[in-house]
Amino acid sequence: MEALDELTRVEGEFTALQAQHDDLNAARHSLQQVIDAINADSRKLFTDTLAAVRTYFQELFRKLFGGGQADIVLEDATDVLESGIEITARPPGKELRALSLLSGGEKTLTAVALLLAIFRNKPSPFCILDEVDAALDEANTARLAGVLRDFLDRSQFIVVTHKKRTMAAADLLWGVTMQESGISRLLPMRFEDWPDEEQHSEAAAA
């Protein structure tokens, strides 16, 4: 009798453990299906986003540089979720090269082109740019200002700058001055409130 009781107890434990094992396998299978679905959606979302950003990046690069070529390349196209990304650029009149080999101004424009490409793909109401034009000459600063104005139908930009050409492209300018030690003062101004030199000369002549 004791042997039968022990057998019954062991069979009961085995049945309970088998049920737990089956539940765990079912849960693992269900979780794997969820993971596979998420990975599939992530791959599609990433691939679609990369394609859109890549197109915008190439377009904006040409606008900012006045020509040239640039691209975003996956290091491992067989595994997009784990792959790194390489950015290549060829400014006008130069050879194709990695981003690390570009000059300071070229790196700035390339980075801005990539930033704005991502921004164009998923715009927000406003964007803050802090001295992105610091390493740019006058011609490149003018191109940057022109590209930013192309975005004004969908976003506003707050740009921190010391460049006069960038300031001249703004609709509203806030100057920060320190007339007294430790005390900053804001000076707002709209350029349309100031007549240009030609209008000023005509008014003076009249």
From TrEMBL:
Keywords recorded for this protein, A-Z: ATP-binding, Coiled coil, Cytoplasm, DNA-binding, Nucleotide-binding
Domain RecF/RecN/SMC N-terminal stretches: 88-184
Protein location: Cytoplasm
A Pfam match: SMC_N
GO MF: ATP binding; DNA binding
Gene3D superfamilies linked: P-loop containing nucleotide triphosphate hydrolases
ATP-binding recorded as keyword: yes
Gene Ontology cellular component list: cytoplasm
Coarse class of the protein's main subcellular location: cytoplasm
SUPFAM superfamilies, alphabetized: P-loop containing nucleoside triphosphate hydrolases
PANTHER family reported for this sequence: STRUCTURAL MAINTENANCE OF CHROMOSOMES PROTEIN 3
Protein name (Swiss-Prot/TrEMBL): Chromosome partition protein smc
